[in-house]
Write a structure and sequence with these properties.
about 325 residues, alpha/beta, five-stranded mixed sheet, three-stranded parallel sheet
Amino acid sequence: MPERKSKGTRKGYTTGACSAAAARAAVQGLLNGCVPDTIACVLPNGLDVAFKVEESFVQNDRAHAVIEKDAGDDPDCTNHARLTADVIWIEQPDTIVLQGGEGIGQITRPGLGLAVGGPAINPVPRKNIEDNIRLIAAEALKTRGLQVTISVPGGEEMAKKTLNYRLGIVGGIFHFRHDRDRPSVFHGGIRASVVQGWKWRPIRADQCGTDHRRPHREIRDARMPELDESCFVQMGDFLTPALDAADRCGIQNIIIGGMVGKLTKMAQGETITHAGRAPVDVELVADIARGIGAPNDVATPSPPRKPLATLRNAWLNWGWNTHFMSNWPGG
């Protein structure tokens, strides 16, 4: 019996790779009068992969092809999305015009390295789409050009499950990831998203906040109502990547908001705060509570929420938080 791969190891493909395959298939249809059932696509790492074409047609001077995304064991809201390419000839020789159609986000703010008002497709996926087209249409492009429209039916609904709106991307998904045949490491995608969020932030403000999973609006409304929503980055469990990216971007003032268990792990020196990495040091919580004058019945080792709830009732929680973060080894 063949050895089965452990769960979580099957590779999948990005939206960019699937878009490049769809575009190449559609252009092949324009050249040959028929879109193939499968299409070879060269990924950014040079790997040649065959994709199944789910739907296609050629009509007059227009061709249409659809590739269904398989995200492997790293699924996100775009898994099984139908990446669609529609291509037509244009008069300008040696020109490939890439447009965003239905379900592709639109850039509304500067800072992402993409033109405001243009489609939310990052440079590497863009180049990969064009490179695949030129591989098969170099001769035809000597006398005319191509307009390529990438769309994702249902993309606007998919985008509602993301934080794209906080980057100023509206109306659809963001072709962000471009790491070819991606390994199934979901955390890698989260880390990359955190870093991308900080890259956009410095253009907006020199003071920013970062939070874990608690809705950032609660933190903003309670303590920092003067900060725009765009000044917040959700970092999940990835403290070090978030702070390193903020430092590279020149952010001077960072305010961290999160649940007390996560904050405790930061004070312990943990750089990844996932529940499976390390337990909460309840002795540390008790020591900090004693340090701001909490009564003995509060400053005893216990789940960290208990002393914080008591201190909150006594209006001491803000002082606790300040003293708490002064104990953080990275502070």
